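Q: Here's a chain of 185 amino acids. Please give me its 3D structure as tokens.
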Amino acid sequence: MSEPAQLVVRVPVSESGYRAFRQAAPPEPSAELGWDAWLGSQRYYGPPITFERLRNELCRYEEPSIDACLRAWARADDSGRARDRYDATRGEWRYLLVDFSENYGDYARVLNVLQHLARFKDGSEPGYALVFNHVWEQGAISALVRIDAGRARFVEHDTDEARAFARDAADAVERATGFWGFLGR
């Protein structure tokens, strides 16, 4: 049995860009993100997910807005420790799902929405959305999306950039869950 991965998002974005992103409708998947390469690199327990299936089935949203999607996903986090916070002082949005999913279809649905933030992002500092399994698989990365102003793309897992954000994300998960508290760390 697979265990649920964690989702950690940290994106510097202006407050107006953040609000516009939340109000936008969930997007159609775009090949520009690099879906084919990412989907082709995954190991599935069932039939592989293709970009066509992503577009025609998995990324059809019942929610009218990205805000509604994000709220629904946070409510579905069984850990009760989901976080969704915009820091106006830092100009940064953070989103955390501790008990996210073990399903690549779910990863794709969420990452499709998150990559849309590139349309609303400003500034030169990149943001990231990471799906990894810190709690059960010692930080195994399933997906890392870099979100720049005007462009989002998957990042290779075995890079300094990926490892640095994964370390920050692991700290966020540990703070949210008190994960190491019961181990005496």
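Q: Can you summarize the key feature?
A: Helices lie at 15-23, 35-40, 51-58, 66-76, 104-115, 134-137, 160-177.
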